[in-house]
TrEMBL record:
Name the record gives this protein: ATP-dependent zinc metalloprotease
GO MF annotation terms: ATP binding; ATP-dependent peptidase activity; metalloendopeptidase activity
Keywords: Hydrolase, Metalloprotease, Protease
Keyword match Protease: yes
InterPro entries reported in the protein's UniProt record: Peptidase_M41-like
Superkingdom of this protein's organism: Eukaryota
GO BP term, pick one: proteolysis
Length: 390
């Protein structure tokens, strides 16, 4: 799960021999020159502490208001070419107005109820020049046929259609090995005369209740302790995250803890929450353009595409497919089953190739998520990878 990061302008090592805070230093320690500038700096420092509080509390509205006010005001003392402040020769030099601190506003998006505020946060950072690659593929659709048969899909991806479809648990890959190991262990115990049927019945009953009432959350939480399974989830969600970012869809957050996902009403064991303003506006008007639907479907199938790109086949993504079907039924006229199948193949083909072109950025996102970094750090890693070409 994303971990909020925050920067404090008052590190404890900055004042190793003083018990005073930087805002309560005796006047004799302050330089005698330009007292008005010092007062302005101290006032600005106090305001930045308010921003830190907003980031810590994950209050997006308050944090965004602060950044917008600092951008339009003169508290950054632009008259001084150096934004660093020396208290005296015995103290270190420090910078209270670091541009990279603006990134931390992304860490407040997860608790935001208004997705338009999330969009405003991304717009603010993009205007500041931080998100230079955000939405760079918004209008890009990879050249190719709209009618995508399994043969065409293999031609463009090198994979059979079955490799790009989510699997039921226990039917393939690691889950199949786990199921075989469980059944093999149970058979061995029975062969040794150990009565396990009552315990087995209880386990199956609990698993059934978990699947029906909690969407498999408990099983998912246990599975997350297995590194290969956990890494596959990271790869899947990083695919959603990177594709949404490239398509210009603001990301609210990436949830990797099954119980947190359950509390937030997310179907599945993990989830990446993104928002498409154009699609929301069109749906409110009772219509949906092909462009908006294409963009949404590409993000939706990007998790499956990411798994296939890394492992050669996908296992997760069943909830993504279910969400896709539910949306297709709402269209007017609704898509037929063959049309849904074609649209799904087209979408996963587009996502697969988009991630293939930006594979290094996807790897950077996976590593950042694996290290437990916050959303702001993950997106910075993506930007660094895209901008440097590394």
């Amino acid at each position: 799960m994303a971990v909020s990061s925050s920067f404090s302008p008052f590190p404890s090592l900055l004042y190793p021999s003083s018990t005073h805070s930087p805002l309560s230093l005796p006047l004799k320690f302050l330089p005698s020159s330009k007292p008005h500038l010092l007062r302005s700096r101290i006032k600005a420092l106090q305001r930045w502490r308010e921003y830190e509080d907003a980031v810590r509390d994950k209050d997006l509205a308050r944090a965004l208001r602060f950044l917008q006010s600092t951008q339009s005001s003169s508290i950054d003392s632009s008259s001084d070419s150096n934004s660093k402040m020396n208290l005296n020769s015995g103290f270190s030099t420090w910078d209270w107005d670091r541009p990279e601190r603006d990134w931390e506003i992304l860490d407040t998006c997860l608790n935001a109820d208004d997705m338009r505020l999330v969009g405003s946060a991304y717009g603010f950072l993009q205007d500041r020049g931080f998100l230079s690659n955000f939405g760079k593929c918004r209008d890009i659709v990879i050249e190719g046929p709209r009618e995508v048969t399994p043969k065409v899909l293999k031609e463009y991806t090198g994979l059979e259609a079955i490799k790009l479809a989510p699997k039921k648990w226990g039917m393939s890959g690691a889950s199949q090995l786990a199921l075989i190991a469980f059944l093999g262990g149970a058979s061995f115990l029975v062969s040794q005369g150990i009565e396990i049927r009552p315990n087995l019945a209880a386990i199956l009953a609990l698993a059934t209740a978990d699947a029906i009432f909690l969407g498999g959350t408990c099983l998912a939480q246990i599975s997350c302790f297995w590194p290969p399974y956990k890494r596959r989830i990271l790869i899947h969600e990083a695919g959603h995250l990177l594709t949404a970012y490239l398509m210009g869809c603001p990301i609210r957050g990436v949830i990797l803890d099954p119980f947190v996902a359950l509390q937030m009403g997310i179907q599945g064991q993990a989830g990446t929450q993104f928002w498409d303003e154009n699609m929301e506006s069109e749906l409110a008007e009772g219509r949906l353009s092909s462009t908006a639907f294409d963009r949404y479907c590409m993000v939706l199938f990007a998790g499956i595409a990411a798994e296939a790109l890394v492992y050669g086949e996908a296992e997760g993504g069943e909830n993504d497919e279910n969400l896709f079907r539910s949306l297709c039924v709402l269209l007017r006229p609704p898509l037929s089953v063959p049309e849904m199948a074609n649209r799904a193949r087209w979408s996963v083909m587009q996502s697969y190739n988009l991630l293939k072109w930006h594979k290094r950025a996807h790897t950077a996102a996976v590593k950042a998520l694996e290290a437990g970094h916050s959303l702001s750090v993950v997106i910075r890693r993506i930007e660094e990878s895209l901008s440097s070409g590394v």
